[in-house]
Design brief:
Layout lengths: L3 H10 L9 E6 L17 H7 L3 E6 L1 H4 L9 E6 L2 E6 L8 H14 L6 E3 L11 E5 L4 E5 L2 H9 L4 E3 L6 H15 L4
Parallel strand pairs: 1-2, 1-5, 3-6, 5-8
Antiparallel strand pairs: 3-4, 6-7
Helix pairs in contact: 4-5
This protein binds iron/sulfur cluster (SF4).
Iron/sulfur cluster (SF4) binds next to helix 3.
């Protein structure tokens, strides 16, 4: 059954939607309730489940687990060394998972050709889109940017994308939905 915002959106744009075929959309696995976070918990997002599950076939991806990290695991963060960003342990900088994370991004971007969109987890050093704290090697925050997985993935695959914080805004939610739909039709 259509949710309120989607019904309004659909009526406004006078577009139909084929409910027999769900559109494949990747998502940070923790947002779907997979207990894959560093602390063994998840970040289940009710809004995404309620608003999109009827229309999207979600492909759950946790780049840190796919990179071989355990659950639970030591927390990591993005650190800039000589202007090169790497993902290292928050407590122990000898833990460096930069290359495995980048390899997962390249592998996923190369092999999931049918994806029409991606919903990322905000602030994650792997999955974040724009609000990930960037540290120097002294532990000071020097800015904010993208996580290493999401950045490399989107460099290789230009598909509609958003994070769960942006989805709270109805306008951004509608735009993402429309972009995914048009992308699935080959229109954009
Ligand atoms: S790496 Fe991404 S999917 Fe995995 S727990 Fe962190 S934010 Fe969630």
């Amino acid at each position: 059954m259509c949710q309120g915002w989607f019904l309004l959106f659909k009526n406004k744009l006078n577009v139909g939607f084929d409910l027999t075929t769900k559109i494949p959309v990747a998502i940070s696995a923790c947002l779907m309730g997979d207990s894959v976070r560093y602390d063994g918990k998840h970040s289940f997002n009710q809004l995404i489940d309620t608003e999109f599950s009827e229309y999207f076939h979600f492909v759950n991806i946790c780049p840190e687990v796919e990179a071989g990290m355990t659950v639970p695991r030591p927390p990591i963060q993005v650190v800039e060394f000589d202007q090169i960003r790497q993902v290292v342990g928050r407590e122990d900088q000898s833990i460096n998972v930069t290359q495995p994370i980048l390899m997962v991004a390249e592998n996923r971007a190369s092999h999931f050709i049918g994806l029409c969109g991606y919903i990322f987890k905000s602030r994650s050093p792997s999955c974040g889109l724009h609000d990930v704290p960037i540290f120097n090697d002294q532990g000071d925050i020097v800015g904010h940017g993208a996580g290493l997985f999401s950045q490399r993935f989107l460099e290789m695959r230009s598909i509609p994308h958003i994070d769960e914080q942006q989805l709270i805004d109805a306008d951004q939610r509608e735009k993402f939905f429309m972009d995914v739909k048009l992308f699935s039709q080959g229109t954009i």
